[in-house]
Prior knowledge:
Elements lengths: L27 H5 L3 H12 L1 H6 L4 H21 L2 H22 L13 H21 L4 H6 L2 H12 L5 H26 L1 H6 L5 H28 L5 E6 L8 E6 L12
Helix pairs in contact: 2-4, 4-5, 4-11, 5-6, 8-9, 9-11
Amino acid sequence: MWSHLERGSSPVDWCESNYSISPVIAEFFNTVTNVIFFLFPPVLIHLFQEYSKFVNPAINVLWVLLMVVGLSSAYFHATLSLVGQLLDELAILWVFMAAFAMFFPKRYFPKFLGGNRRLLSFYCSLFAVLSTGFLVMHPAANAFALMTLVAPALFFLYKELNRVKCPRVYRLGLRCMAVCLLAMFCWIIDRMFCDAWLSIDFPYLHGVWHILIFIASYTALVLGAYFNVSEERPEQKPQLRYWPRNDFELGIPYIAIKHPRKKDKNLTI
């Protein structure tokens, strides 16, 4: 059991050379690029105060989980331990499941759920628990298994963008999908063509993946929050805004509520 905590015990080793910069950090660039997971979530928690108060306080769970992903990923890349790998991958799984439970459109709910989001949350939690067991037993295949969750996420985002009437939201959705696809491209070519990147002394695409996938992930969660209120609480009139300047669309997006009123308990997970 303790051997799984040892450095290098993970079967996964990314392209970046180990201990080439620091004698205590295995993959230095892959480790430090996780800092973005700590910088943005506190800002998002602040920006989503109105959403949390009047719509769903569980939105903050997603921002905290993103920080857990960053912490787990940094630990994994710093040590390349099996425990670090599993913590990293399990945190990603739970972000997916929490977001699915919170934002999956009710019009796609199967009949046996009866439109009950709490029941959906229960099944998502059950799936996450069972999947956790699978990921622990088959660590070598985990990264590829988690990648399969991206396809349905992008599909439903595409479906929602086809329904949206706000051009600003539509543009954000397109940027989100583009960044996500670029992130996946970086992940794949870093994995498949490592020797080529080493030959030009640039084995850092997995670190680039960290930055891009964080941007795509938090943007997708912002869009999910917008779509959720638009469908289930349209009278609150959600508005997509940007910080620090609302007229600068490359800032940090967040959702404001034009007509706030007390949240509905059935919307929480």
